[in-house]
Amino acid sequence: MMTKDLEKAATINVSALTCIDLASPDLHRSAVLLKQACLECGFFYVINHGLCEELKDDAFEQEILCSSFGIEDESLEE
């Protein structure tokens, strides 16, 4: 059973995610949005990137695996 804090942390407000469109002709704006998302929250969503579904699925699986580690997890220090 999840604690309230963990449940709250596991919920992402999708409308709050920065969406970066790589098909946009304004590459400078895309770069600024990417930098801002990395520095301020660490999460963002990229569309029109041209990556295949298999690679995207693998990336999501790795993200889930990484987020399951605790900050103090010794296996990350190796």
Automatic annotation (TrEMBL):
GO MF annotations, alphabetized: metal ion binding
Pfam families the UniProt entry points to: DIOX_N (PF14226)
Residue intervals of the Non-haem dioxygenase N-terminal domain: 19-62
Coiled coil segments of this chain: none
Superkingdom classification of source: Eukaryota
Keywords on record: Iron, Metal-binding
Protein name in UniProt: Non-haem dioxygenase N-terminal domain-containing protein
Originating organism: Brassica oleracea
Organism lineage: Eukaryota, Viridiplantae, Streptophyta, Embryophyta, Tracheophyta
